[in-house]
Amino acid sequence: MTESEQQAIIAIALLASVADGRAAPEEKTALQSALGSLGSANLEAVSRKVAAGELKVTDLASQLTSDESKNLAYQTALAICHADGAANESETAFLAELGRALGLPATAEVGTLPPGGGAAPIDDLILNQAMIAGALDLLPDKLAGIAIIPVQLRMVYQIGQRHGQQLDANQAKDLAGTLGIGVTAQLMEGVVRSALGGLAKGIFGGLIGGATGLAAGAAVTFASTYALGHVANQYYAQGRTLSAADLRALFARFQDEARTIFPKVESQIQQQAKSLNLQNLLGSLR
Questions:
Q1: Domains in the chain: how many in total?
Q2: Same domain assignment for residues 195 and 237
Q3: With a threshold of 0.70, does the pTM exceed it?
Q4: Which own/partner contact pairs does 98-107 have at CB distance under 8 Å and 24+ positions apart?
Q5: Has residue 228 been placed in a domain?
Q6: 195 neighbors 132 (Cβ within 8 angstroms)
């Protein structure tokens, strides 16, 4: 990959970070730190051009000639747009424009996974989503870790709805954050470092995934998702009256419970991992 292609990918990454129009300061700092550590001498200049609206997706895409660079550009943008949850309408439009500019085939909009909603009892919903999260952590493509947080946030949102709560995405993130889940800045930094800092190891070959942003195994991801779901269930059932300390105590208790359940569903999780399609899943989360 040439230096000009790498610079174009860096510019696309910066465009992806502002595609939703509301990049959080910590996300911007993490992204610029990760890009800066790669030795990009033009980072500051590129950042200014992005802020001024001087860089266009079509122009940047035209600078990428190899399949490797095109796929890397799209996967980097995909990861950044989903780093803090499901992509919103603006991010989805950006990804579609980028895909067309790169000449990539259109991605299906409907996922291959159960939606996790419907009329299923809450306990079944929680178990289903915990199994999906665990399956994501088993995929050989470690980029799959970016889908875990959106799956968890969707679950919290659905549980709140079941209890008549009118939630927005930030409220779901706040509850997850109280329990130590949702390290957006670290995840974004990991995406960029892996994508652009380790090309010799393959695209995204070393990305750390998992519910806590650490090298968590499927069992830990399953337990964290399971516990988050049951904490959300009790929290919303009691009208959001539980304290942060109460929430964390419940989280620890349900994590212990999940560890006893995991061996019973491990084979099902492994089967799910064989049929998962990351981009289709991300599309289904919108």
A1: 2
A2: yes
A3: no
A4: 98/12, 98/16, 98/57, 98/61, 98/73, 98/74, 99/74, 101/57, 101/58, 101/60, 101/61, 101/62, 102/61, 102/64, 102/70, 102/73, 102/74, 103/70, 104/70, 104/71, 104/74, 107/279, 107/280, 107/283
A5: yes
A6: no
Is the same domain home to 275 and 185?
yes
* Three-class secondary structure of residue 173 per DSSP: helix
Q: Per the structure block, which two tokens stand in for 124?
A: 């079944």
Number of H helices, E strands in the chain: 13, 0
Give first-to-last CA distance, the chain, whole Å: 33
Axis crossing angle, helix 3-17 with helix 43-51, rounded to the nearest 10: 40
Show the CA angle centred on residue 181, arms to residues 79 and 266, nearest 5°: 85
Counting as low any pLDDT under 50, the low residues of the chain are 107-119, 183, 186, 198-216
Task: Give residue 38's domain range.
Answer: 3-102
The residue whose two tokens read 């008549």 is 164
Same-domain pairing of 71 and 150: no
The string of pLDDT tens digits covering residues 107-133 is 433 233 334 444 468 999 999 999 999
71 and 144, same domain (yes or no): no
